[in-house]
Structure formats: structure tokens, C-alpha cells
Automatic annotation (TrEMBL):
Pfam families: DegT_DnrJ_EryC1. InterPro entries: DegT/StrS_aminotransferase, PyrdxlP-dep_Trfase, PyrdxlP-dep_Trfase_major, PyrdxlP-dep_Trfase_small. One of its GO terms (biological process) is polysaccharide biosynthetic process. Belongs to the DegT/DnrJ/EryC1 family. It comes from the Bacteria. GO terms for molecular function: pyridoxal phosphate binding; transaminase activity. Keywords: Aminotransferase, Pyridoxal phosphate, Transferase. This is Aminotransferase DegT.
Length: 389
């Protein structure tokens, strides 16, 4: 399927040129508001350091069966053993299953907040305290989200964040240590400046394409072609973000100063408001063609994307991408350490969830086009199945 060229809807927010010179604002949400924070190139680096810092290596960590996989890889590489607990069909943690699986070797509980939707942090905190365990809050998909008035990442002993999934920055992860206990955390070195520059230019070009229509698309294609040749000729190592696997070679990489500057200049409250607006727009336009995973958006939640429930991921993804919408196949595979057969609800989630962008760059007019494209893709998918049947 070839793109119609009418839409360009990137999965992540783009970098507007004025953001490079905007003045920093005081961060009102974690990790920017946290007194004890260290920044990294990747959130996975923070997971690796957490295991080492808290002495979780040689012990077991209870993790959700619904996971990306890279967080499990980071934990295993650091020396801990993952054990998995049940997550239901609506991303709900089975707290009774968590309690049953706590054993003599368990050292920590690991809670993932999915796509901005808060998990049961208070209940997991009580369970951790009852058994003398560490609680790790994974907020990599939930930057800027709160559970009502409680910011995610502040209930656990540590909170782990990813910046570049929510903000238009070239890299960035964070480790927040909560509570009175202080840890001596080394400041990781900055990443290669050439790699940061490459990511920054890419984000600026995406913004150009988003705003510039056909002209922007043509100019972006030309600049990308020249840029790829230059990068290759100069042998620049581009440390890719959004990769599927943990790489020990990059574990000590810190966050670039440019990332911090851009991040601190963002209007965080406005980003939350715009994402919620776009999510509600899709919810209202799509609920009649695909039963929503959630009928409401909890107070304080900052949605990373709209989780669309589909029957045939490959077909729907192909149709959306043909319309210029960068929809994503959300968490398709289990980590090999997790027995897929033991968690049928998670297996079904992996077969059926597609990420639909709803980020702050997308205007109501664009969201209307996105909603119509999704409706058309779902109807076409159903017609194909009827003919096949």
C-alpha cells in the first residue's frame, strides 16, 4: 500500500524550532520536580542501575506479564531474576496473583503504568511494605501522568521515566529516588554530540513535514537523503532510541544537555491538556466501531496514545500507514523468560492493541482526519473478513 500523501501523523511529537531557544520553566511534575534525580540516555539504563543500587541482583523481581521486553533484558543483565504476575484484559494488575507469587527470594515488586493510565501504586506499596520489598514504578510510558493528585513515580522507592516518548527531545530517561534515604549516584557522561545532533535534526524535519504539506515532505526527503550520506561518510555513531533490546555498551550514557534544555522549556500542563483533549476526541469518534479498552480517562492521566482494539493488526496497521498515520504495533512479543501460555489475557492484548497517536502536535482538524482514517481501516478490515468467510 502506498501512502496517499494527504496526512503525515508521526507517532511521537516533533521539535518546533522555537523550542531550541525557549527559556526553561520550573518543572511542576516528576522527574523535573524531584529533588533526587539522575538523567540517562535511556530509561533502561535507569532500570539497570536500580538493580545494582538497591542490591536486587541475585534476587527475584516480580514483574507484569504484559511488558515490552527491554526492561526485562536490562534487569536480567544487571543480575536479577524476573518472575511474572498476571495482568488482565484491561491492563489491570491482579493483586492477589502478585501476593501469591511473593517468595523467599523476592526482593522487589515492579509496577508498570501503561500509556499514561495509572496502575495500583498505593496497593502495591502496601504489599511491598508488608513483605519488606522494594517497589519500582515504571513510568516510561507515563511521563506527566498522575493518579488524581498523586504524580506517578512518587509512590515507589524509585520511579523510572522516559522523556522522548512524550516530549520532543532527542533522548532521555530518568531515575527518581523517593524517600529520605540518599544514594550516591554518579552523573553519567553526555552522549556523543553527533548522535544528539542527528536525532535533533530528524525531529525538526518531522516538524517541517507536519506543518509544510507536500513541500515539507519533499524538502524532508531531500535533507534526509543528504544527511544519511553525510552520517555514513563521517562514520558517526548514531545511538538509536526506541530500540527493542538492551545494549550493555550504552548503559553508562547520560542525557544530553540539549535534551534537558528542551525538556525544561516545555509547557507541561498544556501538553497534558492537549493529549487528554485528543484522546477524548478519538474516544467519542471510535467507540461505535471498536469497543474502547477504557470508557474514560482517569483524572490526571496523560495518555501516551489511544489504545485501539483490532482483530487483524497487520491489516489495520497497513491501511493506517498507507494514509500517512504512523500507528504502532504495541508490545507484540513476550520476553522469552515469560511463559506466554500462562497468561492468555496478555497474549490476547499483544494480538489486538494498536497505538493511535494523540500527542500535543496534533490539532483537532488533524484528529478528525485520523479518526476518519481509523474508521475506514476498521470497516475495510471487516469487509475483507466477510469476503474471506
Amino acid at each position: 500500500m502506498k501512502s496517499s500523501g494527504k496526512l503525515f501523523v508521526p507517532s511521537l511529537p516533533t521539535l518546533w524550532p522555537h523550542m531550541l531557544t525557549s527559556r526553561p520553566k520550573p518543572g511542576a511534575l516528576p522527574p523535573f520536580s524531584s529533588p533526587n534525580v539522575r538523567y540517562f540516555y535511556f530509561a533502561r539504563n535507569a532500570i539497570w542501575l536500580t538493580v545494582k543500587m538497591l542490591g536486587l541482583d541475585q534476587g527475584e523481581v516480580l514483574m507484569p506479564a504484559y511488558h515490552h521486553g527491554v526492561e526485562v533484558e536490562a534487569l536480567v543483565d544487571a543480575g536479577a531474576t524476573p518472575r511474572f504476575y498476571r495482568v488482565g484484559s484491561r491492563w489491570d494488575v491482579d493483586l492477589e496473583d502478585v501476593a501469591r507469587r511473593i517468595g523467599p527470594k523476592t526482593k522487589a515488586l515492579y509496577l508498570t503504568h501503561y500509556a499514561g493510565f495509572p496502575g495500583p501504586a498505593a496497593e502495591m506499596r502496601k504489599l511491598a511494605d508488608k513483605h519488606g520489598l522494594i517497589l519500582i514504578e515504571d513510568c516510561a510510558l507515563s511521563l506527566l501522568s498522575s493518579d488524581g493528585a498523586v504524580p506517578l513515580g512518587t509512590t515507589g522507592d524509585v520511579g523510572i521515566f522516559c522523556l522522548y516518548k512524550t516530549l520532543p527531545v532527542p533522548n532521555g530517561g530518568a531515575l527518581v529516588v523517593n524517600g529520605p534515604r540518599q544514594y550516591s549516584l554518579p552523573e553519567p557522561p553526555a552522549p556523543p554530540s553527533a548522535s544528539t545532533f542527528s536525532h535533533t535534526v530528524s525531529a525538526l524535519l518531522q516538524n517541517l513535514e507536519l506543518r509544510g504539506g507536500a513541500f515539507g515532505r519533499g524538502l524532508r526527503s531531500l535533507v534526509r537523503a543528504v544527511g544519511h550520506g553525510t552520517v555514513k561518510a563521517a562514520s558517526i555513531e548514531r545511538v538509536a532510541t526506541g530500540t527493542q533490546h538492551f545494549d550493555r555498551r550504552h548503559v553508562d550514557l547520560g542525557m544530553s544537555p540539549l535534551t534537558k534544555r528542551i525538556a525544561l522549556a516545555q509547557d507541561l500542563e498544556s501538553i497534558v491538556e492537549q493529549r487528554r483533549r485528543n484522546y477524548f476526541f478519538l474516544l467519542g469518534r471510535l467507540r461505535d466501531v471498536s469497543a474502547p479498552l477504557f470508557n474514560q480517562l482517569p483524572p490526571g492521566a496523560c495518555p501516551l496514545f489511544y489504545p485501539l482494539v483490532v482483530q487483524d493488526k497487520a491489516e489495520v496497521l497497513a491501511r493506517l500507514r498507507a494514509q500517512g498515520i504512523d500507528a504502532i504495533d504495541f508490545w507484540k512479543r513476550f520476553h522469552p523468560a515469560c511463559d506466554a501460555g500462562a497468561f492468555p489475557e496478555v497474549a490476547q492484548l499483544r494480538r489486538s492493541i494498536v497505538e493511535i497517536p494523540c500527542h500535543q502536535d496534533l490539532s483537532p482538524e488533524v484528529m478528525a482526519d485520523v479518526a476518519q482514517a481509523v474508521r475506514d481501516a476498521l470497516k475495510s478490515d471487516r469487509k475483507t473478513k466477510k469476503r474471506a468467510g
